[in-house]
């Protein structure tokens, strides 16, 4: 059955197909770069690898998309045995060892599925248009547009109730992303925008962080979670714990009997895995994640691996691993190594996650960091957060630029990327039959 | 008739309304900042001021939109008498001294119209979808997406004719923008992308610059124009002069009997002024530009000024001024100064354009510069181009970051912002009723 071990095919190169260029897929590919006997094809629906932990900075106008994204092609260009294709996987044929993409079909000897996750509205997909989540660059620019446009609209209107609605921001979900978004909006309204508006007082902004559980950041200790809550409140964020959202519409958010009028609602409450696993007939858990064996392959298909947010791996502690960047990174690296070593006849080992702790940032100068009993908070924790994120940000140039953006934001209380870009609103239909010469570049001006 | 001179109203503040936050509008506002006796409202349909001369760099993935744009609010936040509103002007009522916007009506004592221009397809608006022009950030990101997607598509297909079509780029219009786009695509395909692709050879790319006139860059001397043509040809750009486009469709471009199959066509051939002047009953020339008096006001309405690309001003030489950034900048400054001085009773002077020369850049290390008899070209001219553009780029932070981006691109042959971002393609519909915890930020990884 398993043609990988069949004799007589030793001389031809193995085809390794990686679907997804996130932390898992990219690191699997890096392990296979310039390895003899294997041809790697990495397919992603975007042409870039995204440093997702900083995506909220794009949504909050602190960074530009290009600061936290790098073309996958460039990251892998040194490896002649790796091809990168732009495309979207549609279905997996495990028996036929092939994957159907929007541009055609690709065969594989080894398959690495690392398609990630998207946000989940707990069965209320109709909430999505009122409360966008944050998973892609497109989401981030949409959130940026909504947050900034609400301030702009409030500046133009005079009705106080309407103004209040446009200055109310509700963030649903008190995990790290929700905390980051709430802290950034609180800070933006208190400091960055307060001097720029004439007709409204942006410090009248209400930022409400809604969490269904009893406290925010439940993955941290209670002490650290409380510290984060105090830091958020200092930025003007109101925290509503034990509050379950029952409806979201254009007027705002309903929480049982209560309701908050808000023009801007952001969703940071839950995610679910890509559908590709389920549709391929693979074993999935109740969150759509593919259940994997100790070596990250799937049952009966040792040549098919699933990694990152898309996989459900039961940890040595008995819990499944969370959908975080370190998990995806370590899993991708493990799979790449497994394939590489198998080509030289080595037996497989079991994946083991090395937990190096967790962090969350609150505004531009506070964070919490926790690793077992080691806990820090405040400015020192924020510096640690900064160093770790800069260190892992892919590509030298991005690192330097991001540090400079942050230094600028930090010193000036400004946000560098406060642009509202709407693709369609900006082109007027051209009509005149004649035209004037193309614009020239400026070489002069009045002093 | 003219209430500005009417006695008894001396004590109330004048309302100065500026429509458009480009070079003209912004500089008019800057002259009126913190001036007593005048309240300024600047309305723009975007929340940012755009450094348009570098927009082609955004289209060519060298810079991010935020590098060349700054929020108008921030630029004017030091001036308490200036309000900035986001909105689009719909009509001007000269007799009633008011402007209708999408959000409501504003009255004015002084009006400054500086709405700029958009591209013109010479009566063939149906070409726009096949051949986008470059006037806004949205245009630039659309062009970037098309150029990069064509390379990605060529990598995925095998049919040689189809591949050739996807690797053919036609730029219509041999002015500075057309030359900049052609040079950048030529360079990108020869150097930046050549090592990143496996299945195609990006150096097989054809970049064709089509110009209706007998030579490119007609505003420069013949000597300089020829030099630019040679520099472009060294980057692999083919120049077709005296070639008139007769049709553009999804297959490519038709030039009379000839045709070029091309998946990507860019339009840099002509622009026309905003429609606002014409619809307000103002005197316009055949390109839709409002004809202005020597003081940049319009006939019979000394309190209404039109500046920049939207205005048609007859120069001391007898020619109308071109739609360039230096003209807009100087006109805006002049108008702001005129209003400021009129408040103190000074008589008006006439606008005089100070021509400080012109430049065009070809790829990442060549340019031509011309000021009367003074002409330079090559690397020295490119350095001059660089210095001038950095100097005029608004805001310290942007300047430093842009220099760094360029230094990086120059040293590495990479392009920093090679992202294809499509707003809709990236969100999968969420479905599962359960969700997993929010993602955490990475603090660790395998070495």
UniProtKB/TrEMBL annotation, chains A, B:
Residue ranges with Basic and acidic residues bias: 423-439
Transmembrane segments: 376-396
EC numbers on record: 1.6.5.9
Region Disordered, residue ranges: 423-447
Domain FAD/NAD(P)-binding: 16-332
Stored Gene3D superfamilies: 3.50.50.100
Keywords attached to this entry: FAD, Flavoprotein, Membrane, NAD, Oxidoreductase, Transit peptide, Transmembrane, Transmembrane helix
One example GO MF annotation: NADH dehydrogenase (quinone) (non-electrogenic) activity
Reaction equations catalysed: a quinone + NADH + H(+) = a quinol + NAD(+)
Domain External alternative NADH-ubiquinone oxidoreductase-like C-terminal: 356-412
Top EC class of this enzyme: oxidoreductase
Similarity section: Belongs to the NADH dehydrogenase family.
Protein name: NADH:ubiquinone reductase (non-electrogenic)
Source organism: Gimesia aquarii
């Amino acid at each position: 059955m398993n043609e990988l071990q069949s004799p007589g095919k030793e001389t031809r190169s193995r085809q390794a197909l990686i679907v997804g260029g996130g932390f898992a897929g990219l690191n699997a590919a890096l392990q296979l770069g310039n390895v003899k006997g294997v041809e790697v094809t990495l397919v992603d629906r975007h042409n870039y690898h995204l440093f997702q932990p900083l995506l909220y900075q794009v949504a909050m106008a602190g960074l530009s998309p290009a600061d936290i994204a790098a073309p996958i092609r460039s990251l892998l260009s040194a490896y002649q045995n790796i091809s990168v294709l732009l495309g979207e996987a549609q279905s997996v044929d495990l028996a036929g060892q092939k994957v159907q993409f929007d541009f055609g079909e690709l065969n594989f000897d080894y398959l690495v599925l690392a398609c990630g996750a998207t946000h989940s509205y707990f069965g209320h997909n109709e909430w999505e248009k009122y409360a966008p989540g944050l998973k892609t660059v497109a989401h981030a620019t949409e959130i940026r547009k909504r947050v900034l446009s609400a301030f702009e609209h409030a500046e133009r209107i005079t009705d106080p109730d309407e103004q209040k609605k446009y200055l109310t921001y509700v963030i649903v979900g008190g995990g790290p992303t929700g905390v980051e978004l709430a802290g950034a909006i609180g800070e933006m309204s208190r400091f960055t925008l307060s001097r720029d508006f004439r007709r409204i007082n942006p410090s009248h902004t209400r930022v409400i962080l809604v969490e269904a559980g009893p406290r925010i950041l439940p993955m941290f200790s209670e002490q650290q979670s409380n510290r984060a809550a105090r830091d958020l409140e200092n930025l003007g964020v109101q925290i509503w714990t034990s509050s379950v959202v029952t409806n979201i519409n254009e007027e705002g958010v309903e929480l049982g009997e209560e309701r908050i009028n808000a023009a801007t609602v952001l969703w940071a409450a839950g995610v679910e895995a890509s559908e590709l696993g389920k549709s391929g007939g693979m074993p999935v858990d109740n969150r759509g994640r593919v259940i994997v064996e100790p070596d990250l392959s799937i049952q009966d298909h040792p040549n098919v691996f699933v990694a990152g947010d898309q996989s459900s791996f039961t940890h040595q502690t008995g819990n499944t691993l969370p959908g975080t960047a370190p998990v995806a990174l370590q899993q991708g690296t493990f799979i790449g190594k497994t394939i590489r070593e198998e080509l030289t006849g080595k037996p497989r080992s079991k994946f083991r996650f090395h937990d190096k702790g967790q962090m969350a940032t609150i505004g531009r100068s506070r964070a919490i960091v926790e690793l077992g009993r080691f806990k820090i908070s405040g400015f020192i924790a924020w510096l640690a957060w900064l160093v770790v994120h800069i260190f892992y940000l892919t590509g030298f140039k991005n690192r330097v630029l991001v540090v400079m953006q942050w230094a600028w934001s930090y010193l000036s209380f400004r946000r560098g990327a406060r642009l509202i870009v709407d693709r369609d609103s900006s082109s007027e239909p051209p009509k005149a039959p004649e035209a004037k010469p193309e614009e020239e570049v400026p070489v002069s001006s009045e002093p």
